[in-house]
Design goal:
The protein is of the alpha/beta class. The chain has a single domain, classed as Rossmann fold (3-Layer(aba) Sandwich), CATH 3.40.50. Helices cover 33% and strands 26% of the residues. It has 9 helices and 10 strands. Strands 6-7-8-3-9-10 form a 6-stranded mixed beta sheet, sandwiched between helices. It is globular and about 45 Å long. The model has no long low-confidence stretch (mean pLDDT 93).
Length: 234
């Protein structure tokens, strides 16, 4: 067995005195798309933030390609080829679309060239000189993902990228995930929109009360739908 791209064992995390993660165990293989499912407050976003070192105290093990990162600063974790796209997107309103795209530094070899990014996101090429605040929600989401691709990240942590967007934009983002997977990217998604996530992921991990309580593959999905509805309250 090859070493997983990401391997988490016994992960506990806190925000101040709030104990949010209670022994998370999961792994993600290189080139795999994994979706974290669960109700709000289950610990999915905190898991992503803990991977990047953005929570308070952490205990346990977080290995990236076999390298222990639990004690690493966030900028050093990023240099291992990780990119985090938070739910709030973080577009700088005073900068143009292209300035936002070019702002993050190159952190690892193999960053996607701007020409390739514009081929994947033609909307961004058209809107290159536009101010960040003038972009639509969908364009801002595309930009948030695109600037991570330029840094050289190969493991993408995508938090609720489909939330609040029109169906046509959600479809474009689904096509983006498929294209990135074909190019060998490894992707972990937090998604409330199960219809969006269902056809994209190789595996699904269900979280509840800061733990992973179930996991299943794409092939097992049809037989797990009823149980999933029970877990997710949908």
């Amino acid at each position: 067995m090859s070493t997983p791209f990401l391997e988490i064992k016994g992960l506990n995390a806190w925000y101040g005195e709030s104990h949010v993660l209670h022994g998370v165990d999961l792994h993600v293989n290189e080139g795999e798309v994994v979706t974290l499912l669960g109700r709000n407050g289950a610990g999915r976003t905190t898991t992503m933030r803990a991977i990047m070192g953005l929570t308070g105290a952490r205990q346990g093990s977080i290995k990236v390609k076999g390298h222990e990162t639990i004690g690493m600063a966030t900028h050093k974790v990023a240099r291992l080829g990780l990119g985090y796209c938070p739910e709030e997107r973080g577009i700088f309103s005073s900068l143009s679309c292209e300035e936002n795209l070019m702002l993050p530094p190159m952190l690892a070899k193999g960053g996607m060239p701007v020409e390739q990014i514009y081929a994947m996101f033609p909307n961004l090429k058209e809107r290159a000189p536009s101010q960040g605040t003038r972009l639509s929600g969908g364009e801002q989401q595309m930009l948030a993902v695109a600037r991570i691709l330029r840094t050289g990240a190969r493991l993408l942590l995508l938090d609720e990228i489909s939330e609040g967007l029109a169906p046509v934009i959600v479809q474009k983002l689904a096509e983006m995930v498929v294209a990135l997977r074909k190019q060998g990217y490894t992707i972990v998604m937090v998604e409330q929109n199960f219809r969006f996530a269902a056809p994209l992921a190789d595996r699904f991990l269900v979280m509840e009360h800061g733990q992973v309580i179930q996991q299943f593959t794409q092939a097992e999905l049809p037989s797990r739908i009823d149980k999933l509805h029970e877990y997710l309250g949908v």
